[in-house]
Amino acid sequence: MKTIWEEIKTAIKLRVPSHSFRMWIEPLRLSKFDDDCVFLSCPNFFSKKRVLDQYKDIIESELRKATGKACRFIVKVPESKGSSSKEIAVNPQLPLLQMNVYPQNGRFLRKDFTFDQFVVGGNNDFAYSAALSLASRKNSLQNSLFLLSRTGMGKSHLSQAVGHYILSEHPRDRVYYTTAENFSNEMVNAYRNNSIDVFKGKYRNQCDVLLLEDVHYLTGKERTQIELALTLDTLFESGKKIIFSSCYLPSDIPKLNDELRSRLLCALISNIDPPEFRTRVRILQKKAKRNGCKIPENVIHYLASELTEDVRQLESGLIGVTAKSSLLGTPIDLGLAESVVKNIVRRRKNITVDVIKKLVCKHYRISVKEIVSSSRKQLIVRPRQIAIYLSRRYTDAPLQAIGKSFNRYHATALYSIGAVERALKENGAMQKQVEFLCQKLETGKF
Hints:
Number of strands: 10
Low-confidence stretches: 81-102
Oligomer: single chain
Mean pLDDT: 85
Shape: globular
Order of helices and strands: HHEEHHEEEHEHEHHEHEHEHHHHHHHHHH
Strand order of the largest sheet: 5-7-8-9-6-10
């Protein structure tokens, strides 16, 4: 039977991507064959769940071809000291992890941002496999990962999932989760308070895993870039784990010194694309179940077909239909879903950089000539930054094209986007202004 199992694995290898085969199928071992049931062993419960969720049909199909009859298979995780082995049949419902663990320093990890809660599809399969491989230390030669995607695709989820996994398997490991902006601010404060040696020691000597988000915000921050490059050198030499995330490739981040750029490029770059329809359906189903909501299947499919941009948009749609149903006391149906979706879906084909430029100018009572001028007056600079931010958010124009439309370099455009995003976090006057302009764009009232 072992020979047959190796033949089955060879056949499966031709049907799945090579990285998926190495990660999930290759580690499977045949334990025994009893009547019409095949017993397989795999390294851990994450692997078991992934095999059963994604490769059940393929394995059953190849088993049937090889044996000439329908065979069940059961996946078993080998016993560890002090624990008993557990078997689950082909159609299990694994309990969701409810970890409430936090890193040694930096930001808190969201407890729902675990591997179990991440929905895997063709758009993110490689990034998921790479993140889990790094977290489980399967590949000792690859200690760094660069997660690349637009906002709202799951970079933060995967990054924090690595932190959760490592802290659950190795509680003594020192995990630090932070953003590039916070890293920079922390370094500046350390210099001001004459505690730079403490800052350096914390990152270089007291950190086993560094999760660094939004590295593109380091653009133009030369002093921070130098310090981070030296810190990364120390971590790399010590074999520590590092995960970066960004909306831009290292080679596309402006005003980044060569030393830091080269270190970022050393990481395994894993892209996350927008989810396809089937993945969007599974995302909505998982989030509805987690929130205890019963959403009709036709509503799930409608939301998945209309909300196509990113995971956050899907979440917005799901929250919208459940909230409106609860507030109005009406059942969740297609009519309700349609009323929610029409306020979310962006009319992208009608929204251009010029449209945004004119809308912002009208709102702030300035001319188009002024917004593209070299003026540094705050009355001009702030509307310009908002217009650039909205252009990035609502159009598919590349950063260079957006910058050129405002007579600015793409580095300045990137800075403007960052300035608006930071201001939005403060929940001040700018947030209300941006929300008002977003509503205008999303409802087509421009």
